Amino acid sequence: MQLKSFDNTADLDLYAAQLFADALKKNPKATLGLATGSTPIGIYGKMIDMYQNGDVSFKYATTFNLDEYVGLTRDHKQSYAHFMQQHLFNHIDLPSEQTHLPSGNAADLATECSNYDRMLEEQPVDIQLLGLGHNGHIGFNEPDHSLQGGTHVVELEEATREANARFFDSIDEVPRQAITMGVGSILKASTILLVVKGADKAEIVKQALQGPIMTECPASLLQTHKNVIVLVDREAGRLL
């Protein structure tokens, strides 16, 4: 596991974006695993800058997102499909047919999960971007006595819904379920990039990276992966 700490967010975002650019320069057809939430917004901004400056192309890449809310249409303003369009896809040369998100609005969610896993098997992720939840979740894999390896539907913890309520008019509008890649699917990525920002994440960063490996802290399973890069700002990494 490689750990890098940064004095400012701009440098962290640039470093992360450069890792994706390097992957594409090495293999223009690379498969990129993407995430949503506040953590990657700056990283996507740097990726857009690199594309606009002619430093990188996404034309032949394929992307897979970690998760999506159940019950939201793709054009809902708080869907992750909409988030990706707004913060990345609308601003680069990545063809829409090469972008993939699980559909939380599918008629048969079990079939949707199986189909997503099949696509991931056919096009394994080269580099997977992850954020870290306050309770140790990665994707929407919540702490539990056991975890599912493949893509599945999960009941969101109230703490997770409360953390995401700031994006909605009220917590009552936050979906209670999500469809997410499983930890097993995440761990199949060749490289995993975990990005954590903010003093409020310091405790869970220490637990995830240096504590016991347990399903009650899903991110701790990243300790079993052979190629994890962890990028933290000074506040998030202050207990390491």
Report on the structure:
This protein is an alpha/beta fold and 240 residues long. The chain has a single domain, classed as Rossmann fold, CATH 3.40.50.1360. The chain is built from 7 helices and 10 strands. It has helices at residues 9-26, 41-52, 80-87, 109-122, 158-164, 183-187, 202-210; strands at residues 2-6, 31-34, 62-65, 67-69, 99-100, 127-130, 152-155, 177-180, 191-196, 228-233. The protein has a 7-stranded parallel β-sheet with strand order 1-10-9-6-2-3-5, with helices on one face. It has a 3-stranded antiparallel β-sheet with strand order 4-8-7, covered by helices on one side. Helix 7 (202-210) links the parallel strand 9 and strand 10. Helix 1 packs across helix 2. It is globular, with a radius of gyration of 17 Å. The protein starts with a strand and ends in a 7-residue tail after the last strand. The relative contact order is 0.18.
Which helices and strands appear, and what pairs or packs with what?
Elements: E1 2-6, H1 9-26, E2 31-34, H2 41-52, E3 62-65, E4 67-69, H3 80-87, E5 99-100, H4 109-122, E6 127-130, E7 152-155, H5 158-164, E8 177-180, H6 183-187, E9 191-196, H7 202-210, E10 228-233
Helix content: 25-40%
Which stretches are low in confidence, meaning pLDDT under 50 for 5 or more residues running? none
Radius of gyration, Cα only, in angstroms? 17 Å
In CATH, the topology is named Rossmann fold
Side-by-side strand order of the widest sheet:
1-10-9-6-2-3-5
| CATH architecture group name | 3-Layer(aba) Sandwich
- Cα distance spanning the termini: 13 Å
Sketch the major β-sheet.
Answer: 7 strands, parallel
- Reading the helices and strands in chain order gives EHEHEEHEHEEHEHEHE
Count of structural domains: 1
Name the beta content range.
15-25%
Backbone structural class? alpha/beta
